[in-house]
Structures are given as C-alpha cells and as structure tokens.
Design goal:
Layout lengths: L2 H17 L4 H20 L4 H14 L6 E5 L5 E5 H13 L26 H10 L4
Helix pairs in contact: 1-2, 2-3, 2-4
Length: 135
C-alpha cells in the first residue's frame, strides 16, 4: 500500500468515527493510538501483519477491549460495545460490508439466520436488516 492510499484509509477511519454517536473522545483516542503504534512499527521495518498485532496488543494492554461504550450508528442502531469493537468492528461489518462480500454468505429476504457466538450482535443486526420483517 502506498502512503497516499494509507492516509486515505486512516482519514476514512476517523471520518466514520465522527459519524457514530457516543464515546467519541475515547474512540478517537483508540484509533489514534492504534495508528501511532502501527505506523511506528512499520517505520522500523516490521511487516504489516506484525505491525497490526503490535498495535492491537498495545490497545489490549490499555484495556480498550474491556471498557464499554454506547454508540449509535448513522442508521440509528444502538449498541453497547467494548471500545475496540466500537472503533473497528462496527465499521468493518456495517460500513465496509465485510460479511457481504461473498454473495453466498449474504442473508436474503425471508431467510432465518442463526448467529452462533454472536459476540455483541453486530452481524445479527445486519442480518435482521437484510432478511426483513418476513425473516
């Protein structure tokens, strides 16, 4: 990934955080710390995956995966999540469509969906929206 593309991705992550409601200061701190550690790790020559793990490990050591925050998505869904999930999983699932990339995995109108081990319910909310009132 070139530097210009990396900066666009970082900018999109911050922009999405500003669109969510609730806990903005701590979510922006989480994203800032993540990218700070990630970029520092890359600058000293660490591989991309190693840099991600270092950044995530650092956030974990600060307790970001244990502290709750209540967020409201731009669509109006309300979640109580840990800060890490509020920063990354909401965007990956609801904004980036991570689970919708494979058409065979995407719930359709009328389906019944079982979200086994549903963590904090982000995919469940997406699935409910996709299957509609008849699902």
């Amino acid at each position: 990934m070139n530097p210009a593309e990396a900066l666009r991705n970082i900018s999109r992550d911050f922009a999405y955080q500003r669109r969510l409601k609730g806990g903005l200061a701590v979510r922006l701190l989480c994203v800032t710390l993540y990218y700070g550690v990630y970029v520092a790790s890359r600058l000293v020559g660490a591989a991309q995956d190693r840099s991600r793990l270092r950044a995530l490990g650092f956030l974990g050591s600060l307790g970001f995966s244990e502290r709750p925050v209540v967020v409201r998505t731009p669509e109006g869904a309300l979640f109580e999540l840990d800060i890490f999930a509020a920063c990354w999983l909401v965007k990956e699932i609801l904004e980036d469509g991570t689970y919708e990339r494979d058409p065979s995995f995407r719930p359709r109108s009328g389906w019944t969906v079982l979200d086994i081990g549903g963590h904090q319910g982000l995919f469940s909310v997406l699935a409910a929206r996709l299957v509609g009132s008849g699902g």
